[in-house]
Amino acid sequence: MEHQKLNDFPEDFLWGSASAAYQVEGAYDEDGKGESVWDKFVKIPGKTFKGTTGEIAVDHYHRFKQDIALMKEQGLKTYRFSVSWTRIFPNGRGAINQAGLAFYQRLVDELIDNDIEPMLTLYHWDLPQTLQEEYQGWESRKIIEDFTNYAQVLFEAFRGKVHYWISLNEQNIFISHGYLLAAHPPGVSDPKRMYHANHMANLANAAVINKFHELEMPGKIGPSFAYSPNYAIDSNPQNVLAAENAEDLLANFWMDIYMQGRYPLAALRYLEEKGWAPEIEPGDMALLASAKPDFLGINYYQSTTN
């Protein structure tokens, strides 16, 4: 039977691995790097396992050449890494920290020299602490301009070398864990603030994708999303409806914005009834609709039942 056959992966399939700057780099205060929200958050007792931090991690900042040699030995075709915003702009904006930018230039060059396609994530959760303190980070519209300016510096620095870009990594995770579960920075548990911050992140994501295309960058850009499909536990109509509601609130609420530029109506009405809906200003939906990502990255961990 046809469904029992497995086709080979294409020759140009990008088998790879991924990391986040705070998870692997270490060197948390070297070469002009500024403080990120994670640098501060991990010092709160009980927020990480046994109080562990990323101050040293696996020391990728100093050992990246050895790490890339291992990637090549493993046969990886691509490596997705994130740039630490505070290595480029220690305070989130202002003068470029050339030492920080130079590290990523060496990293990208080393990957290319080893025939490994670099895939760059603009944001993997390490917001500059200065921006959090100055205007509450993702809760302010000011972040749209700051994030776009930061992204443009990287676009210009790696034009022609990096062809695959992730705008925001797992927005649904850093927003829900940071503003509802209090498990990530800024450690808030408030659904109204969560959906407001999420709307700001959507606008920033759209602005950055538009900037990428405006600059006629060679390559592709899109967000990545942590998707856990929701299934009904049985055929009971109430459980089927519960699964559909969960899919709207936990998945489509993000993916519809990314790909269609609008919020799913049922989910938005539910938030309005709860008093949690974001405040949508004139021009917001036009910006969201104008952004056309080249792809949607799916990080798949598990499915859920309702």
UniProtKB/TrEMBL annotation:
GO terms for cellular component: cytosol. It holds the Pfam family Glyco_hydro_1. GO terms for molecular function: beta-glucosidase activity. GO terms for biological process: carbohydrate catabolic process. InterPro entries: GH, GH_1_N_CS, Glyco_hydro_1. Signal peptide: none annotated. Belongs to the glycosyl hydrolase 1 family. PANTHER family: ARYL-PHOSPHO-BETA-D-GLUCOSIDASE BGLC, GLYCOSYL HYDROLASE. This is Uncharacterized protein.
